[in-house]
Amino acid sequence: MVSRLRTEPFAEEDLSHDAFLGGRLRMAQPKTGYRAGVDPVLLAASVPARAGQSLLDLGCGSGIAALCVASRVPGVTLAGLEIQAAYAALARQNSASNGIALEVFEGDIADMPASLRKRQFDHIIANPPYFERDRSTPASDTGREKAMGEALPLADWVHAAARRTGVGGTVTFIQRVERLPDLLAAMATHLGSIEILPLIPRRGRAARLILLRGRKGGRAALRLHDGWLLHAGENHGQDGADYTTATSDVLRNAAALPFPD
């Protein structure tokens, strides 16, 4: 299935304005369609960026992951690539309203704009669509479907990311754990020093998501880290009320989510 792209701008009445990082960021998102949750925040928190470095967010949507990185690490030069014009416009709007520079390119990861193909970055992040559409049901909203339903194989995402990464730079993805074999195989082809950090919903539960990082030119052996625990307690309480202290620090205080040394 090839989903249509959301090109029509969102009307103001169709947007919500949501707080991220404890109110450090105020982000416009569509009330219906693709809405970011905690996943891009966790992805952003895991990037080992430093002031003076550069970062590219592939499939940046409304810009939340990239802007979360800059909120934690001021002085990072940000760029994003987004295929849907309506979401690219939201990313520019969120950049301006939060006073954080984000250069947004419109285009396909498989056929990037020429001006972007000339550049390399210290860090690349991506939150690719989670679901293979030959094994799942498409979303009715075109924007949400493009964000959640895979149209481009994960191997192509990784290849594109590796090509835009400078030597010694990192590529970090967040993805569902069942996609790990595909993602790991692709990273092993183009990157080294690969690290896997499972995100554990609760102690004793299986991971549903993983953070996977590779380094351009890295030579270290594969590392599978102990999982990062998201929620405290054995049972679900009120939404947002039972995150672990460390996870709350990431989501509310812009703390880092480091891969273990």
From TrEMBL:
Residues 42-134 form the Methyltransferase small domain. Coiled coil: none annotated. Keywords: Methyltransferase, S-adenosyl-L-methionine, Transferase. The keyword Nucleotide-binding does not apply. The keyword Methyltransferase applies. GO terms for biological process: methylation. Its EC number is 2.1.1.223. GO terms for molecular function: N-methyltransferase activity; nucleic acid binding; S-adenosylmethionine-dependent methyltransferase activity. It is an enzyme of class 2 (transferase). InterPro entries: DNA_methylase_N6_adenine_CS, SAM-dependent_MTases_sf, Small_mtfrase_dom, tRNA_Adenine-N(6)_MTase. It comes from the Bacteria. This is tRNA1(Val) (Adenine(37)-N6)-methyltransferase.
